[in-house]
């Protein structure tokens, strides 16, 4: 079983690094006016979230879930993308990279994410009166916030 987990981790790391490359290209595309890049950014976020959840990396899963909520709002037209939000999204990709390096080196995802989660929640406040999720797909698989100490 331990060798299986090592193999899963190895596959995860390979896949997530490929996802990070796609993230970077998608943000370049977005900056060049390709609004379809949001769909690709959402797909990659969802993929990383699922893989992280499968392997028990709760911080990474939670950060991606929170990012996914805002991306759903953008896709649905409920949130307008602006420079500040792009900065938060790019900072999140940097933090995801930090988390992946932490997983690779220490086999845990104990990296501070609270600042980015809070920043996304500020955009998530645009929810309707019933406080329904901006992203029905994401709400079905809601991820509780992990208790992580700052590193």
Automatic annotation (TrEMBL):
<feature type="modified residue" description="Phosphohistidine">
    <location>
        <position position="46"/>
    </location>
</feature>
<dbReference type="GO" id="GO:0016301">
    <property type="term" value="F:kinase activity"/>
</dbReference>
<dbReference type="GO" id="GO:0000160">
    <property type="term" value="P:phosphorelay signal transduction system"/>
</dbReference>
<protein>
    <submittedName>
        <fullName>Signal transduction histidine kinase CheA</fullName>
        <ecNumber>2.7.3.-</ecNumber>
    </submittedName>
</protein>
<dbReference type="Pfam" id="PF01627">
    <property type="entry name" value="Hpt"/>
</dbReference>
<keyword id="KW-0418">Kinase</keyword>
<feature type="domain" description="HPt">
    <location>
        <begin position="1"/>
        <end position="103"/>
    </location>
</feature>
<dbReference type="InterPro" id="IPR008207">
    <property type="entry name" value="Sig_transdc_His_kin_Hpt_dom"/>
</dbReference>
<keyword id="KW-0808">Transferase</keyword>
<dbReference type="InterPro" id="IPR051315">
    <property type="entry name" value="Bact_Chemotaxis_CheA"/>
</dbReference>
<keyword id="KW-0597">Phosphoprotein</keyword>
<dbReference type="InterPro" id="IPR036641">
    <property type="entry name" value="HPT_dom_sf"/>
</dbReference>
């Amino acid at each position: 079983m331990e060798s299986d987990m090592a193999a899963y981790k190895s596959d995860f790391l390979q896949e997530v690094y490929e996802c990070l490359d796609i993230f970077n290209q998608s943000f370049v595309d977005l900056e060049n006016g390709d609004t379809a890049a949001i769909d690709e950014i959402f797909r990659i976020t969802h993929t990383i979230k699922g893989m992280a959840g499968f392997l028990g990396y709760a911080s990474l899963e939670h950060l991606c879930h929170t990012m996914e909520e805002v991306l759903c709002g953008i896709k649905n037209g409920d949130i307008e993308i602006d420079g500040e939000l792009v900065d938060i999204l790019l900072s999140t990709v940097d933090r995801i990279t930090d988390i992946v390096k932490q997983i690779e080196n220490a086999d845990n995802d104990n990296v501070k994410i609270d600042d980015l989660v809070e920043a996304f929640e500020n955009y998530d406040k645009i929810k309707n009166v019933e406080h329904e999720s901006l992203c029905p797909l994401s709400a079905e698989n809601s991820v509780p916030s992990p208790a992580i100490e700052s590193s």
